[in-house]
Amino acid sequence: MAIRFQLLHTDQAARCGHMDTPHGPVETPVFMAVGTQGTVKGLTPAQLRDVGVQVILGNTYHLALRPGADLIADLGGLHRFSGWDGPILTDSGGFQVYSLAQSRRIDDRAAVFRSHIDGALLELSPESAIAIQEKLGSDIAMCLDECPPFGTPPDYLRVAVRRTIHWAERCRDAHRRPDQALFGIVQGGTDLALRAECAEALRRLDFPGYALGGFSVGETPEQMAAALAPTAELLPADRPRYLMGVGRPQDILAGVAAGIDLFDCVLPTRNGRNAQAFTAEGVVRMRNARHRRDSAPLESGCGCYTCVRFSRAYLHHLFLAEEMLGPTLLSLHNVAFYCRLMAEVRRAIREGRFAEFAAVNLARWQAPA
RNA sequence: GCGUCGGCUGGGCACUGGCUGAGCCCAAGGGUCUGUAAAACCCCCGCAUCGCUGUGCAGGUUCAAUUCCUGCCCGACGCA
Predict the structure, then answer these.
(1) Is the peptide bond before A240 cis (omega within 30 degrees of 0)?
(2) Alpha carbon distance A190, A351 (integer Å)
């Protein structure tokens, strides 16, 4: 058994748990930092550790293209290669079926990509996606899925769901590595019947964890929130549930309320590079002129290195001067903010006051800063 | 002092004897980002609601000058 998940506390549908992996323990609910190309952009493993990151992501498509799964395997696997010795989850490339739709074609056998780097062909089948992830040596691998955008006609949505189920079975059959867990992915868009069909089929395949995919692909946050709980409650309570790619802090609270345990999102790092900071009072855009002479920290009360050491005026200066330290310091703070938020979420669940905690935070984020 | 090239918006430029100088780039300012083709992209970029005002100054040529000519002023470069 590659992972062991224990449910420790529940507070209505919200769950607080503990997950052991081959590379260490994880307290849930958890936010996982996205490190697509074997790096959480702009941050070192030491910095990630320091702000409380427990798990990072890698990406099958991107790493297979460059530098190649065999090379990473030859160099000791993704943990050693990247210098991150904690838990790693690898995404299967299913999201690239969505985001690189212009340069791929898909059928029941496989998805074939035209490389965004040099145009070379890369075929991602359920079997090859598993083989690549086994070479990478992640603690948690994901099934290859088809992630259709919001607004996909019902007929095709059904095709995508059935293909995702079929592929999940092939992934499970292909998977060999005993020190790696393989999670199934529930698709179905905002169609609750399709979500239920997918969840039920995947449940029969008996995965050690289940993901909700196909969210934040164009639907409104309200539509997403409406589909979360009905889908999550169809999944076995004793397995971790992972809401893929979500999201903003308020979306994560909605996910926790729906019974989700694992989250990941590019927002803290991408927006950090683009000068936007997440704080308890809402988002702060560090390029704005109002910070030019502001000696206050980015977020008062935040204990991260960025907030302890630097002023808003300095961060503002770094972004206007296009210095690389700006994106690093803001990414660091944003990841710290997400990790701190999740620690507070876990405590609130343990203490049986998650609903109140969520309400207070949502109200603060919605107030004008 | 002479010569050359220039004077348009915070800076840098393009074009034009009439119907387009309110066009571009940069800076500044504002915004967007959800399993990362993103240290990216979008808007704005004279002022304001329609609309208004803007081509260094003074003359000249012309039906008409921001454009061509003369002088002056200012700037850069070159030569003394």
Answers:
(1) no
(2) 32
Beta pairing partners, A212: A186, A243
What would the pLDDT profile of A215-260 be if each residue is shown by its tens digit? 999 999 899 999 999 999 999 999 999 999 998 999 999 999 999 9
Say what the pLDDT of residue A368 is. Answer: 54
Is residue A112 within 8 A of residue A121, CB to CB? The reply is yes
Rounded distance in angstroms from the CA atom of residue A35 to the C1' atom of nucleotide B36: 8
Name the residues in A238-267 having a C-beta closer than 7 Å to nucleic acid strand B. Answer: 244-248, 251, 264-267
* ipTM for the whole complex: 0.91
A window 268-327: Cβ near strand B (< 7 A)? 269-271, 273-276, 283, 285, 287-290, 292, 320, 322, 324, 327
Residue A24: CB partners within 8 Å, gap ≥ 6? A54, A86, A87
| Statement: the CB of A139 is under 7 Å from strand B | no
**3-state secondary structure (DSSP) of residue A333:** helix
Nucleotide nearest to A147 (CA to C1'): B35
- CA–CA separation, A299 vs A368, rounded Å? 16
